[in-house]
Amino acid sequence: MAPPKHRRPGFSRKAQYGLFVTYVVAIAGTMVAALLLAISVADPAGFSALRAAGAEITAPVARVFSNVRRSTQNMNATVAAYINAGSQNAALQKQAEANRKKLIEAQALRVENARLRGLLKLSEDSESQVAVGRLISSTASSTRRVATLSIGRNFGVERAQPVRGPSGLIGRVIETGPTTARILLVTDAENLVPVMRVSDGLPAFSAGLGNGTVLIKPLNLGESPFKVGDIIVTSGNGGLYPPNIPFARVIKKTSDGALAIPYADPGNTPYAVVIRPYQGEARAAQQAVAPDGETKEVAE
Amino acid sequence: MKIPVTTIRLPTRPAREYESRFDREQSLLKMLAIPITSVAIASMITALPIFTEEPLLPPLGLLMFLSWRLMRPGLLPVWSGVPFGLMDDLFSGQPFGSAGLLWSLAMLFIEIIDARAIWRDHIQDWLIAAIVIAAVLLGGLWIAGMAHAAPGPAVLIPQIILSILLYPLAVRICARLDSWRLAT
């Protein structure tokens, strides 16, 4: 397209100065943006109020679309159930027969477990839920893996509370607004989760890769002990995530760990449960002495 | 007989069914609001319940912004990258100020190109947009990596390709909006 006329303002001093001022404003604005960026890099929670306001504004629309999406999925499932009714019935009956035996075994194990716990005088604060919400949006165009939850401070959601879905751990709360909260998903590169292999309790750490998978790294050195198909659950170390929440399934063994896919798919989870941090009191006491992000010498 | 005022004011001939076809003015509100609103709404698309495992959704706000800038040079002032970018930052999940800086740099870059390559066609604009999109996405990853742990740049390749392929569609949408904007 032809260059616009404003680039050659002619002999008018006013127009010339006007053009010059737009360049000055542009460069000054760039520097202001760079300054804002420097502030937000130094203090990532600094502009959370602004982001929360943005999430609050778009939340009503996101809620509507989320409902539409969910009811469409339900409808598809209902129609499919009618079509598959006969074959599904037979398969489910067979499965129910098989499950009955396992259920009885599990019942016996539960009784035994309770008895052993009683013998050991073990008391753990059980996983207590704060509130139940839904994931209504995610940062699908950014490299950060952050989702928005449909409930916020109005339901008692606070920072650093773990969030889980019916199928596994989703992430943890990083910012809260009045009626929305932002959740750092386990697939974000910043989210480190202490985990273990469910079969033998092998301790490991999980770090997100930002592409839907997580990297599981065992604590001990040496060759990767994982096998494809290993099931990973949270270990409860560190006192944030409660233990034994289903976490991921190993899909590939790497030289120093394993690649795994989290069980909870944020796009397909019907609800998200915000739970209290595991060993919350112990953590609160620790935070009172040495808060996160401020390492200071603790005097005896 | 006293005639009521309302009857006096009624026209004696039937009302015109059409308006004058010439000397009509475009609505100033429409001229200003349509580009601003379209970029803002495109930035907010990410707030819809779209869940992707990796960054796959194209930066629609950026696409819309670039389309307006390249299709209608002179419409958006040089400094407009800052306010539009900061608004995009509210929704994108990037550190606040990242798009403000990158979009503004993109504006200055296109301004420099405008002074060099004066007569351009759509393909050349597409090439410029492709360079800017790739640079802004990689820059965004780099900035996110300064603030937090970030994945490697390979994770961006599908998003960059998708965004570049979507640019002509964004220009089409802009052109439709533009003809609506300037309609009298």
Automatic annotation (TrEMBL), chain A:
The chain crosses the membrane at residues 20-42. Pfam families: MreC (PF04085). Keywords: Cell shape, Membrane, Transmembrane, Transmembrane helix. Residues 136-256 form the Rod shape-determining protein MreC beta-barrel core domain. One of its GO terms (biological process) is regulation of cell shape. InterPro entries: Cell/Rod_1, Cell/Rod_MreC_2, MreC, MreC_beta-barrel_core. Gene3D superfamilies: Rod shape-determining protein MreC, domain 1 (2.40.10.340), Rod shape-determining protein MreC, domain 2 (2.40.10.350). GO terms for cellular component: plasma membrane. Belongs to the MreC family. This is Cell shape-determining protein MreC. It comes from Sphingorhabdus rigui. The lineage of its organism: Bacteria, Pseudomonadati, Pseudomonadota, Alphaproteobacteria, Sphingomonadales.
From TrEMBL, chain B:
InterPro entries: Cell_shape_determining_MreD. Signal peptide: none annotated. The chain crosses the membrane at residues 31-51, 96-114, 126-150, 156-175. It is found in: Cell membrane. GO terms for cellular component: plasma membrane. The keyword Membrane applies. GO terms for biological process: regulation of cell shape. The keyword Membrane applies. It is a multi-pass membrane protein. Its main location: membrane. It holds the Pfam family MreD. Keywords: Cell membrane, Cell shape, Membrane, Transmembrane, Transmembrane helix. NCBIfam families: shape_MreD. Belongs to the MreD family. This is Rod shape-determining protein MreD.
